[in-house]
Each structure stands twice: as C-alpha cells, then as structure tokens.
C-alpha cells in the first residue's frame, strides 16, 4: 500500500485465488486463511483437477492452492497444465507430508511454494501473505523441517561411521588400541 497524490491510502490491487483440494473441510480452512486478507478474492473452488483447469481458463486467477493428491489426476499434472496456460500464476502445492522429493518436483513444475496441510494457521497465513505480496518461495516452518530432517540424517550417518565416544576413549587408552607399542 502507498499514499496517493491527495494523501489518501491506495489499496493494492486484489489478488484472485483458486482453491483445489479433494477435502471440503481442508478447502474451508484454506478459504478462512485467504479471507483474512481484504486484498485476496477467491474466484473458485474445486475438488478435482479437470474442474481446476477449467476454472483457471475461466477466471485466470493470480494464485492457486493445489493439493498434490486429487481424485482424477495428480496435483503436479494440474499444476503443469495451469502453468502452460498461465505462466504468471503463483501456485502453492499442498500436501500432508513433507516429502523432499515431491517438494523438488513441485518446484521444477513451477510451484512458488509448498505448504503442509497441518501447518499452524498463523504460519499458514503469514506464508500466504509472503507468497502473494513478497514473492517468497518456502515457509520457514518447512525449511526448518527439511533442514532438521537432513541434518538428523547427516548426524546419524556420521555417528554410524565412528565408534561411540566411550569406545573411542577406551581404544585410545588401552594397550591394544595404542599404535607402535
């Protein structure tokens, strides 16, 4: 938002959004988050990919929230077709699991973001705002999740390569563990 020439506040242009999730209750949660913003207007909702593609053609939304698992086709296939028709579309992929492979596939397909279905509503709201108004690409919560998963695996791998510290100390101090004696 900014000031106009007369000192009044100009509103930013409304962002139009489409919700695509097989679960009606989940769509309701996403709708509630989007409706917190005066500047976001929902132009369509659906539970399947074919209808989502038709809605994108009819309404040309600027934002789409697309679940990875839909009854008639994959969310990635829907995303691919949407981006072919509307390359400027900002798409956020929704999933129940933080699968790193699916995240990378979604990003390669053109997703601007990835949200977990059980993300805390306050984080979800801030993340949606950052995608729409600031061109962010991944939520802090999701980055933390993947970093913890990666670092946890890395630390476990390192631990598997070394004996436990008490064994290492024993080997260093015992005559059989000393070299050159």
UniProtKB/TrEMBL annotation:
One BP annotation, GO: phosphorelay signal transduction system
PROSITE patterns: RESPONSE_REGULATORY (PS50110)
SMART domains listed in its UniProt record: REC
InterPro entries: CheY-like_superfamily (IPR011006), NreC/VraR/RcsB-like_REC (IPR058245), Sig_transdc_resp-reg_receiver (IPR001789), WalR-like (IPR039420)
Source organism of the structure: Cohnella nanjingensis
GO molecular function, a single term: DNA binding
Response regulatory domain location: 16-132
Sorted UniProt keywords: DNA-binding, Phosphoprotein, Transcription, Transcription regulation
Protein name (Swiss-Prot/TrEMBL): Response regulator transcription factor
